[in-house]
Amino acid sequence: xxxxxxxxLLLWPVITAADFxxxxxxxxxxxxxxxxxxxxxxxxxxVTDTLSPEEWRTAAAALRSPQLSAAVERxxxxxxxxxxEEIVGQHTGTxxxxxxxxRGFGKPLQMDCIDESTNTNTYLLMLERDxxxxxxxxxxxxxxxxxxxxxxxxxxxxxxxxxxxxxxxxSWFHDNGQPPYVERLEFWKAGGRPGVx
Length: 197
Known about the structure:
single chain, about 200 residues, alpha+beta, 4-stranded antiparallel β-sheet, 6 strands, globular
């Protein structure tokens, strides 16, 4: 038996919860007036961006009215993230980003899961800072690892304030401006993806 397998199994709860792909060059307290945007695979390019008051109102519109439940708020979060991607994509040129890695592989202005999860986390923090999340709190990103679920993959995460349930908010699967895949984190960690129930 491989001598490393017991160590991996022992550390499995830690390594699947940890954010292994963080970067210190991303603005830690983003706001519409100044935030970071990652692209070109694993944050090889990091630029700063600014939203006008009108752009921010548009981006956050889905969350401005009271959300009746956590489930309704998760849907509104997905709409807000998609709208943010559309607006920021026009600023940075990343509106051409293709979902996944294969269709955009090697092309400029594309995003892998590190870029996507970093940007989504940034947008979530901006929404939270503006008091627009009633039923959720932004949690640390999470990474799932190989063996049964393929290559390492990272997602942004929110936590339901009422139940403590954490949800992946994964914008990597879809093209720029499409709502992210939002799913219970444990299902996502087990290899969950759009179209798989």
